[in-house]
Amino acid sequence: MIYKVSYVVIGGEHPGAIANVEQPPRIGDIVALGKQSFRIIEVLELMPPRGQFSFLHASCEIIHGEDS
Q1: What are phi and psi of 67, to 5 degrees?
Q2: How many other β-carbons are positioned within 10 Å of the β-carbon of residue 3?
Q3: Which of 22, 25, 32, 46 is positioned for an S-S bond with 58, CB 3.0–4.6 A?
Q4: Whole-model pTM above 0.85?
């Protein structure tokens, strides 16, 4: 299964991204978008899976300081 994930950064500090990943994102996961790290705070299925693809939305927040 390929997960097409739309990453949206809360607060608009980063434009976000769309990526194909092999594992679905989960709340609490850390993802690197460019040179910055983000914590996933919400995951939603955008539509039911089609064939080998699943379409997801992940809201993230930037990690500042020691956590990055």
Answers
A1: -70, -20
A2: 19
A3: 25
A4: yes
